[in-house]
Backbone:
DNA sequence: CTGTTCATGTAAGAAGTTACATGATTTG
DNA sequence: CAAATCATGTAACTTCTTACATGAACAG
């Protein structure tokens, strides 16, 4: 049993997902992803451009003549086959990988042996990072709220979840800092 | 400017971190990591065994004659130089990578176009996953609480933070499910 | 004596990042 | 016209996972 989806990576589905609502260039998608999916699924040009071509080769996306100023841009639109692949992915039930890699948390975990000052410094770095993350997420909230009309509420809901998550994280860090003082 | 630490990956520091409190075999470390650091820093045998050898080669760890039953096991202990490298890493201030990859959240993000039933199914999968994660974390809590005496409280603190995080996540998912009903 | 767990390792490959190269277009 | 931004792409590299191979020790 093999389908077209077998050759698609999660990155491909990010691309299809964005193309589903509107045609985009690789550059567009990168820019949009950087203040939306980036927080739980990063992508880079090194994947985007080759993958878009691959999707076109598989007939899931098609290059469209687009332009900006006088210059040609490689704008892609999703095809019917592409929509089908996206739906199939969304409907498919499977475990769904979850992964987190947090270098500072790793340090915190091992920080006891290095004394309270080192621990304090790590906690501070983490707190600053979390504060920055929350500020960044909140800065895109108005935009996400505005576009909610076009496609459903999911994108905003995911964003709000991210904010809650990082706020919980931040509060925990603050507690630990207090305990140490 | 180059130090021994340049050649060390984050995985190396996980190994040094565990060796810092006690000598261990690669197998030991994998087992321990699987119910502690795994939740924010996974490691696999494919990294552990080669990396341990590399640490030994750099003089940061040393093979110790250990045995279990009649059989020889490759038990490593940390060296003074290894402790120094670990401390240097803990003290070093640098951004510290943070990364999250959540396939189901990615689906949820794009789920609007597929209709409410698909969205409901994704939310359910996510809820079950979070409930399982929380149960697993809570199951190691007594153990983490017990060993807190040996090395400081950081390991327990990190665990408790993880529980809070996943509980926040779970609550958010439950809210979304209610909104959809 | 048979299946399971303990234990160590390697090879191949997947996935993703970084750095680099290139050049057009716009802005000041 | 110079600097910044737009835009596309590739090659090399790093990191990590998966699958496989091997065999000892132990439990029933």
Residues:
């Amino acid at each position: 049993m093999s389908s077209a989806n077998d050759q698609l990576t999660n990155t491909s589905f990010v691309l299809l997902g964005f193309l589903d609502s509107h045609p985009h260039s690789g550059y567009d998608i990168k820019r949009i992803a950087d203040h939306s999916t980036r927080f739980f699924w990063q992508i880079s040009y090194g994947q985007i451009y080759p993958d878009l071509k691959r999707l076109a080769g598989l007939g899931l996306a098609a290059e469209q003549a687009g332009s900006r100023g006088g210059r040609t841009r490689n704008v892609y639109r999703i095809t019917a086959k592409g929509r089908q692949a996206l739906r199939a992915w969304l409907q498919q039930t499977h475990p769904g990988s979850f992964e987190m890699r947090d270098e500072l948390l790793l340090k915190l975990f091992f920080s006891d042996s290095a004394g309270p000052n080192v621990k304090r410094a790590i906690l501070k770095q983490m707190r600053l990072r979390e504060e920055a993350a929350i500020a960044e997420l909140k800065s895109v909230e108005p935009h996400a709220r505005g576009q909610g009309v076009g496609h459903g509420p999911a994108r905003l809901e995911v964003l709000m979840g991210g904010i809650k998550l990082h706020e919980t994280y931040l509060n925990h860090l603050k507690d630990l800092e207090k305990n140490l003082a």
Remarks:
- Strands of chain A lie at 24-25, 61-68, 71-78, 98-102.
- The longest helix of chain A spans residues 116-147.
